[in-house]
Specification:
4 strands, Bacterial Protein-export protein SecB
């Protein structure tokens, strides 16, 4: 049997953003219009971020959907001013990545591309809800990944 030489380009990592889209968005302003009046104390913010990924087997072995989920709630004392939830996704082609590298790309690098878009959508949505834009601080996806791995 003849030995086939592998092309040196066969091992080059391939990373393509095929599409990105808003999958889900919810904004609740349960106490409006009272929530828009002046209040005596400073509001508190709680932000939760999660990343999920899955292979899109109907499209082939190297195409993945990565979903960035952000949920935020702002309260005054125990009263909710607003709740916002957003899910923003990307479809990525990733080839020639071993399992460890692939997982890091899906859970660290891909959400880094998605984050600015969802951040902007959330800021616009809270502004349209009558509040100052909620400008979410950059997320440390490396720390999130490492915490998930433990």
């Amino acid at each position: 049997m003849a030995n086939k030489k592998k092309n040196s380009n066969d091992n080059n990592l391939k990373f393509i953003i095929n599409a990105q889209y808003l999958k889900d968005l919810s904004f609740e302003n349960p106490r409006a219009p009272e929530s828009l009046k002046n209040f005596s104390s400073n509001p508190t913010f709680k932000i939760d971020v999660d990343v999920k990924s899955k292979i899109l087997s109907d499209h082939g072995q190297n195409i993945y959907e990565v979903e960035l989920l952000i949920k935020g709630e702002t309260k005054i004392e125990d009263d909710s001013l607003f709740v916002i939830e957003g899910s923003y996704c990307g479809i990525f082609t990733i080839e020639n990545a071993n399992e460890d590298i692939l997982e890091r790309i899906l859970l660290i690098e891909c959400p880094k591309f998605l984050f600015p878009f969802l951040r902007s959508i959330i800021a616009n949505c809270t502004r349209e809800g009558g509040f100052p834009p909620l400008m979410i601080n950059p997320v440390d996806f490396i720390a999130m990944y490492e915490k998930k791995k433990k």
